[in-house]
Amino acid sequence: xxxxxxSGVWPSLGETLHVLTFQGGFxxxxxxxxxxxxxxxxxxxxxxxxxxxxxxxxxxLSHATLPGITLAFIVAVMLGASGRxxxxxxxxxxxxxxxxxxxxxxxxxxxxxxxxAAMGAVLSVFFGLGFVMLSYIQTMATGExxxxxxxxxxxxxxxxxxxxxxxxxxALGTTLASLLLFKEFRLVCFDPDYATVLGWRISLxxxxxxxxxxxxxxxxLRAVGLILVIALVVIxxxxxRFWTERLWVMAVVAAxxxxxxxxxxxxxxxxxxxxxxxxxxxxxxxFFFLLSLLFAPARGVLAAGFxxxxxxxxxxxxxxxxxxxxxxxxGGGEVVPAAALRSRVHGPAARLALARLTWQGLIARRPDxxxxxPKGREEALRITRNHRLWEQFLMAYADLAPSHVDHxxxxxxxxxSSDMVEELERQLKARGRLPRHAxxxxxxxxxxxxx
Length: 451
What we know:
Layout (H helix, E strand, L loop, with lengths): L12 H8 L5 H26 L3 H9 L1 H14 L7 H25 L4 H24 L11 H4 L7 H20 L1 H9 L1 H6 L4 H18 L1 H4 L4 H13 L5 H25 L5 H19 L5 H32 L2 E2 L10 H13 L3 E4 L2 E4 L1 H24 L8 H7 L5 H13 L21
Antiparallel strand pairs: 1-3, 2-3
Helix pairs in contact: 1-14, 2-8, 2-11, 2-13, 2-14, 3-5, 3-6, 3-13, 4-5, 4-6, 5-6, 5-11, 8-11, 13-14, 13-15, 14-15, 16-17, 16-18, 18-19, 18-20
């Protein structure tokens, strides 16, 4: 598959475009398709594994495949067959991985060790055993052991058409199986108790899910390597989780990110064969994760920070409007000096709120202070009324002292819906605490004024 430069010289733009557009040769194109399908399958299957909290189990599975690979090589050589046959090595990896998962389940169910401790023990023991057997293979006079180490780190650039075809077929089959079992996996991931009530056998569904993880993990060993293949199962779903709250969208995005990671990583491996393919593919997936972490509109860091700032600005806006209203109510006149509102107009959010309220025409700035416009007074009246309705409710039903209700009302007044306000009015009216006029109830602490 290699068309890059062993000397480390950067490939030309033409070479890069030829690889990315499937014009770099038949072998290269087949490998690109195979690894892309692997990424799609890993992202889709990994979505359910992550939601089912099976990511560490998948890591154990990937490390537990090494003894199977080495044992399959030894047995094949002893029988006179080729020890580097991919189907033989993958069969050994699958059996060893399944044995590792079953060992974890046996330990966690029949001993006092928690599942994470069992997984750590099995992962370490199986991986250590695999390295011992790998060292033994290096002493065998077969002449075929040179490529076995590639299963640890992956080597996409040296894959052949047969290898890529096997990977593509297994990945495509795994993807179709995941789509067929989508409903069952969704039920188990989000409400296993309800699935049990409906008569579903959770253990069987979990077994089917782990079987698909085994298939993706084992078939990905050749391309990504057993150390990093788990990253292709975990990182795309983790990145997709930042973009949506819906499972089917998360599955599609995870499959897309996994496919792009495989495609771009395999292309880079063809252009730079000196670098390990598994590391490149995982780095591409990690780049997508970083982009999702920062820029995803649903759960990204920047979007969350923007929403928090907007919420603080809205709260500061309402506090400022209420402060102006209460200052005028206490006899401060229509124009309130800015110094009288120092406790409400401070910090970036409050200054942003003041600028926004002025731009919206709710507050008018005067040389001697601030004044509510008619539109602003109407909004301030609504906010103040909601605040004091909640204060009256707390004093009437929670038996709180007037000095203890202001802070609670400050927190709640911003989320009171119209239905909640109507219910407050009905209950306070029944107790005679609601004034006859449409204005706000009297403040329980009138001396607080607008400060």
